[in-house]
Automatic annotation (TrEMBL):
Transmembrane segments: 25-48, 54-70
Family: Belongs to the thiolase-like superfamily. Chalcone/stilbene synthases family.
Protein name: 3-ketoacyl-CoA synthase
Organism: Momordica charantia (Bitter gourd)
Keywords in alphabetical order: Acyltransferase, Membrane, Transferase, Transmembrane, Transmembrane helix
């Protein structure tokens, strides 16, 4: 892969993007100087000719319109953000962990008693996962290896392949990347995960790098929103978001049922997403980012403590998922959907919903409130992969059909819950099925601890074909739906 061109300027080496920004600023400074000379010349001409003062006022008003109203609106208009392409990890087959293998290993680990084994067996059976889901090599040992170096090895295993695949697909060099955001909720080493990636790929010294931790399953959507904000500031830039969860660091070796859930649900996965604000990317990119929305309820103690990492009575660390999540997470999601609906739904749907609420409150309390038809504006949905019942419950709230839930259910079945990266496996599923057409809108919903909910709405800007041959669904997509 070719490196980004460099230009020497005043003893400093500038990359092409930096040079463009420098030239742009110089151009506008020169333009301001020329306009100032022009205005001064006209003022002098009007004064020497002794024309009516009304011409002075007209000139001043013209300058006001150009510099105060028109110019800022042109220069500060939001930049379009495009998703050029993305890659998802297909875990190697030797990482596969059938239920029988998982439970047999668990019985040989002294920290689990018969009650813990029975609980995990029931959880796996009802999880909606298949026998093909994967765990990192460190968790195949008896007892599992959970020390720092094993987690670092897992980082290399899940992040490097997707980064390499994305750069290959987009024909970019690591040195073309201007912004790097890495999200992983439970593992936060020093040097950071973003530094590990920068070191491995010899990225630029001036790259803007960020590391997000503790954000839960919504972290990838949060990272996309952060990248969007950065791309509004840094012109003509490429941004890569890397999303994963390091499982060897999060393994719970205790007996509390609320902490054992994560051992059963979370599985290997990672994704790399390339975003840009370059105008020339409009025709080659897959999607355009239309809207983002984020809300959270961390200010409330009940919400804050509904899912939290803490030690059990024996001092063993794990993430507790309490029964309060059954109330807190739906409320957080409902708020997000309500706000998003108010901005994207057509007027007819808003009116029907509003009239039904008034009727229920003032006329007939037995009447049900009308649920707006989000399918009128959204074509595809990528929902939180937190379990089959969760996916179906969200589908019921949004009045979705079984086919609309298929991407989430099949991702959960084939790969398990991969935390933040699961949204991209769902989108990859839709692409592999060749269901996403030019002009279609896609709604990704990320739910995470805090709790928080983040929505991303994309518009497909070009035909997407041939993705069934690419990972992670290569050679398997024809088997789904089951």
């Amino acid at each position: 892969m070719d490196y980004a061109p460099k230009v020497s300027h005043g003893g400093t080496v500038l990359h092409s993007t930096q040079l463009f920004t420098h030239l742009r600023l110089t151009f506008f400074q020169l333009l301001n100087f020329l306009v100032l000379i022009l205005v001064s010349s006209i003022e002098i001409y009007i004064f020497l000719k002794g024309w009516n003062p009304i011409f002075h006022i007209f000139l001043l008003l013209s300058c006001y319109v150009v510099f105060i109203i028109i110019k800022p609106s042109i220069l500060n208009a939001p930049r379009s953000v495009y998703l050029v392409d993305f890659s998802c990890l297909k875990p190697p087959s030797f990482c596969r962990i059938p239920f029988s293998f998982f439970l047999e290993n668990a019985t040989l680990i002294d920290t689990f008693d018969s009650d813990s084994i029975s609980f995990m067996a029931k959880t796996l059976k009802s999880s909606g996962q298949s026998e093909e889901t994967c765990l990192p090599p460190a968790l195949h040992f008896i007892p599992p290896k959970t020390h720092q170096q094993e987690s670092i090895n897992e980082v290399h295993m899940v992040l490097f392949p997707v980064m390499e695949d994305l750069l290959t697909k987009t024909h970019l060099s690591p040195r073309d990347i201007d912004i790097l955001i890495v999200n992983c909720s439970g593992f936060c080493p020093s040097p950071s995960l973003s530094s590990i990636v920068i070191n491995r790929f010899s990225m630029r010294s001036d790259i803007k790098s960020y590391n997000l931790s503790g954000m839960g399953c919504s972290a990838s959507a949060v990272a996309i929103q952060l990248a969007e904000n950065l791309l509004q500031v840094h012109e003509n830039s490429y941004a890569i978001v890397l999303s994963t969860e390091i499982l060897s660091n999060g393994w719970y070796a205790g007996k509390e049922h609320s902490k054992l859930l994560l051992n059963c649900f979370f599985r290997m996965g990672s994704a790399a997403i390339l975003l840009t604000n370059r105008k020339e990317a409009k025709d080659s990119s897959k999607y355009k980012l239309l809207k983002t929305l984020r809300n959270q309820t961390s200010f409330d103690d009940k919400s804050y403590l509904s899912a939290i990492r803490e030690e059990d009575a024996d001092g063993k660390l794990g993430v507790s998922v309490t029964r309060d999540t059954l109330q807190v997470f739906p409320e957080t999601l409902r708020t997000n959907i309500t706000i998003m609906g108010s901005s994207i739904l057509p007027l007819s749907e808003k009116l029907r919903h509003g009239v039904s609420r008034l009727r229920k409150r003032y006329v007939d309390k037995s009447q049900e409130i009308y649920v707006p038809n989000f399918k009128s504006v959204i074509r595809h949905f990528c929902l939180p992969v937190s379990g089959g019942p969760v996916i179906r419950a969200i589908g019921k709230v949004l009045k979705l059909k079984e086919k609309d839930l298929e991407a989430g259910l099949m991702t959960l079945h084939r790969f398990g819950n991969q935390s933040s990266s699961a949204l991209w496996y769902e989108l990859a599923y839709l692409e592999a099925k060749e269901r996403v057409e030019k002009g279609d809108t896609v709604w990704q919903i990320g739910m995470g601890t805090g709790p928080k909910c983040v929505s991303l709405i994309w518009e497909c800007v070009r035909p997407i074909i041939g993705e069934s041959k690419n990972d992670p669904w290569a050679q398997a997509i024809d088997r789904y739906p089951i």
